[in-house]
Amino acid sequence: MKSLKGIRILLVDDEPHILQFLELGLMNEDYEVKSAPDGMSAVNLAYEFQPHVVILDIMMPGMDGFEVCRLLKKNGNNVAVIMLTAKDDVEDRVKGLTLGADDYVVKPFSFEELLARIQARLRNQFPSLFSEVAMGPFRLDDRRKEIIYRERVLELSPTEYELLKFLVINHGIVLSKTKILDKVWGYDFGGEENIVEVYIRSLREKLNDKEHTLIRTLRGAGYRVDLP
């Protein structure tokens, strides 16, 4: 996806060299970027700046990233929060996600990985910013609810459309059945996890993915779409 001018990103970290590195990289991608060195400044700046995405460090003096996330997500604000953590700690991840964080990245991380996660969040939460998104052999048109694969419009049910869109947008990332159910079927879905397998099988048939090279199964982990 080509980055677009007008997309606003707020960086929050108490380490100046990280802020400078990320600010330069994201501005080079044509994003509009502002930064804050602490939690209170971030909350005040977010109110004025109205960012689409917030890159938020967890471990900060004073107001930590968890409290900032809670305040940013208060009142149902549609801002995408990607949390940065220096610890690959499950408890940190769970706490952040519970407070409304949309994704997390463990330090140290590559800029390319962060950029991919930013773009995934934008496609998921702000599809109206893009009339059509091209990704490898796919073209996604969220306004028409159509997915074109190798110049062929796929005949998809509404659920198949949402599932394939979620897989393609997050290409290269392993998605568990639980995460797929939450994002595609909703948190209140009371059915069995096996429904995911049924829909994956149907998508593979429509994509002629007999060898499972497009939608890969990673045993015990979930599914991953690999794009050329």
From TrEMBL:
InterPro entries: CheY-like_superfamily, OmpR/PhoB-type_DNA-bd, Sig_transdc_resp-reg_C-effctor, Sig_transdc_resp-reg_receiver, WalR-like, WH-like_DNA-bd_sf. It comes from the Bacteria. Residues 130-227 form the OmpR/PhoB-type domain. GO terms for cellular component: cytosol; protein-DNA complex. SMART domains: REC, Trans_reg_C. Residues 130-227 bind DNA. One of its GO terms (molecular function) is phosphorelay response regulator activity. The modification 4-aspartylphosphate is found at residue 57. CDD domains: REC_OmpR (cd17574), trans_reg_C (cd00383). Keywords: DNA-binding, Phosphoprotein, Transcription, Transcription regulation, Two-component regulatory system. Residues 8-122 form the Response regulatory domain. GO terms for biological process: regulation of DNA-templated transcription. This is DNA-binding response regulator. It comes from Paenibacillus abyssi.
